[in-house]
Amino acid sequence: MFRLGAGPGIIDALRETRPDIVFNVAEGEGGRCREAHVPALLEMLGIPYVGSDPLTLCVTLDKPVAKRLVASEGYPTPRFRSCSSPREVAEAGLSYPVIVKPAFEGSSKGVRLSSRASSPEEARERVGFVTATYGQSALVEEFVPGSEVTVGIVGNGTPRIVGVMEIAPRKVRAEEFVYSLEVKRDWENQVEYRCPPALPAGVVAEIERCAAGIYRLLGCRDFSRIDFRLDGRMVPHFLECNPLPGLSPGYGDLPIMAEKMGTPYLGLLSEILSCALSRLGMAPR
Ligand SMILES: Nc1ncnc2c1ncn2[C@@H]1O[C@H](COP(=O)(O)OP(=O)(O)O)[C@@H](O)[C@H]1O
Ligand SMILES: [Mg+2]
Predict the structure, then answer these.
(1) What's the confidence (pLDDT) of residue 107?
(2) Distance between CA 95 and CA 259 in Å, rounded?
(3) Among all ligands shown, which has an atom nearest to the Cα of 101?
(4) Distance 269 CA to ligand 1 centre (A)
(5) Which pLDDT value is given to residue 264?
(6) Burial code of 20-54, b = ≥16 C-beta within 10 A, e = fewer?
(7) Cβ-proximal residues to 102 (8 Å cutoff; 6+ apart), any chain
(8) Mean pLDDT of each 10-residue bin along the chain, 285 residues long
């Protein structure tokens, strides 16, 4: 086992080392197709790899594209508008508050407490910030005020729900909560991770149904994490799908929920790898 590193140097490294399989965690750099760079290269070189393919990685990184697909199959997702300039906020016809986030970033990049806007004036200001800072359109989305949950999924065919984890704020009310970078970095003080969640069984079942359906719909392979927020009637609304979820032990939401559900860190990684090997017809007999 060895690390391939990142960036263009990986092209030579792959040709020289010809790995049997790559456990892809590369997020890439630059643009909405960045997460597809390494898997596309691996496909070109005929090297098998763990995780989703380039199309799924592109479609999920571009949140408006993912939301359109998810909505087309009837799964609820907050109403939204992609704005390339603050002027477009006026035409959006959305209900307030809204949240304004970069259209294709992850790990709460560009998502702060101040991303929640209560008026068109505030939203315009945030759109200006996102477009100027990140050089991309801003996704302006109606704010869903209820509990936040994230769902970990592993497998193919009939994938396994690893856990449904509620991210409950300790310091603010749910309707003001944003799982921002500031919160994530200070998670021990800011949030309580509830896994299993403190939600009615019927609500959890509906969250799991949506998560499994969206996983299949977006073509996820081997593992992913899908984020939702509940509205006032406890209906889950799709926020985004992460086919390359953070895997840092003790920090990434997927390892944290697996641990809470009785799957230790290495058990999680080996389950993901086993699923990939089976999918590729490489599983040991
Ligand atoms: N429409 C929304 N309603 C309420 N909260 C939201 C909404 N969109 C995002 N958030 C908050 O912002 C956080 C980050 O947004 P998300 O779309 O998951 O982006 P990231 O890729 O950065 O994780 C979410 O975990 C949630 O707390
Ligand atoms: Mg998220």
Answers:
(1) 80
(2) 38
(3) 1
(4) 26
(5) 97
(6) eebbbebbbeeebebbbbbbbbbeeeebbbbbbbb
(7) 109, 110, 111, 130, 134, 136, 138, 139
(8) 90 95 95 95 97 98 98 98 96 95 88 94 97 95 98 97 98 94 90 97 98 98 98 98 96 96 97 98 90
Give the Å distance between the CA of 68 and the centre of ligand 1: 16
Write out the two tokens for 18.
Answer: 């010809």
Amino acid letter, 8: P
* Ligand 1 and 179: CB distance under 6 A: yes
pLDDT of residue 238: 98
62 Cβ closer than 6 Å to some ligand 1 atom: no
Beta bridge partners of 39: none
Ligand 1 near 84 CB (within 6 A)? no
Ligand 1, atom 22, residue with closest C-alpha: 108
Question: 239 alpha carbon to ligand 1 midpoint, in Å?
Answer: 6
* Crossing angle of helices 9-17 and 37-45, rounded to 10°: 30
pLDDT for position 92:
86
Q: How many Å apart are CA 77 and CA 15, to the nearest integer?
A: 42
pLDDT at 123: 97
Q: How far apart are CA 180 and CA 184, in angstroms?
A: 6
Ligand 1 midpoint to CA 178 (Å): 7
Measuring from atom 10 of ligand 1, which residue has the nearest CA? 178
Q: What is the pLDDT of residue 181?
A: 87
